[in-house]
Amino acid sequence: MKESEPTSTPKHSPMNPPGEHHPDGAFDDPLHDWWQKNGKSLIAGAVIVIVGTAAVFGFRIYRQSQEQSIQIAFNEAVSSESLESFAQENAGYPLGGVAALQTANTAFENQEWDQALANYKIAAESLKGNPLSGKARLGIAVTQSEMGNNEEAQKILSALANDEKSFPASRAEAMYFLSLLSLESGDYDSFSQWSSKLAEIDQIGQWTAKLGYYEDRTPLPVIEVTSEESAETASTPEATAETEAAVEVVESTTDSDTASTPETESAEPTSPAE
């Protein structure tokens, strides 16, 4: 009976890597250990990303369907001439702002100032960030002016004219109205200020030309001088010297005219027969 040969330690090979043995005979795997520690958090993060992406796309689909329904309602309001009720029901949406702006313009043409002002305010709030927002703000200011609130109108117009984020055309129109208000009130310093700014921003020259039309037809201010002011002016040494010089010129002119005129005796005309 042959003696059993001693067992030798197996050599390491790519198919037989070194490592510690588990009780069940499996080697330690670093990737397996890492997955055991972090796998659950990765799965949870992936689920959050998937849910978030689904929510974003779902919200977009909802907004698109909502905008389509608002567009349909807007078209129906235009055809049925019920834009005012549509604007009130859809305040905060761009189409609601457009409807409010159209309603306000119609009320302004009919001189219904309260209705115009209310709808211009709805339009301004609903059209924030839209170029039409400037038109709504202009409508508020001009309506306030028509209602006799020129100070409030000037505040709104000044804010719009100095708002560099607003559309340049709206800013130019605000400067035009500010120039007109200054011209009507006789504030020529403010008029000069706003008309100069208008000339810089009004590239097309539309509002500058309109302003020039009214400026040419506005009478220049007449400076009234009181009797006290005229007396004080006349009593100054400069005025006295000018008066004396004028008198001397008049006297010398009179003397020269008298010396150059010949003295003639009056005689009755005689006939050729005599």
TrEMBL record:
Primary localization: membrane
Localization of this protein: Cell membrane
Annotated ranges, domain Ancillary SecYEG translocon subunit/Cell division coordinator CpoB TPR: 33-173
Keyword Flavoprotein recorded: no
InterPro entries: SecYEG/CpoB_TPR (IPR018704), TPR-like_helical_dom_sf (IPR011990), YfgM (IPR026039)
Comp. bias regions, Low complexity: 232-253
Basic and acidic residues compositional bias, start-end: 19-31
Keywords, in A-Z order: Cell membrane, Chaperone, Membrane, Transmembrane, Transmembrane helix
Domain of life: Bacteria
Transmembrane domains' residue ranges: 42-62
GO cellular component: plasma membrane
Chain segments carrying region Disordered: 1-31, 226-274
Compositionally biased region (Polar residues): 1-11, 255-274
Annotated family: Belongs to the YfgM family.
Name used for this protein in its record: Ancillary SecYEG translocon subunit
Organism: Puniceicoccus vermicola
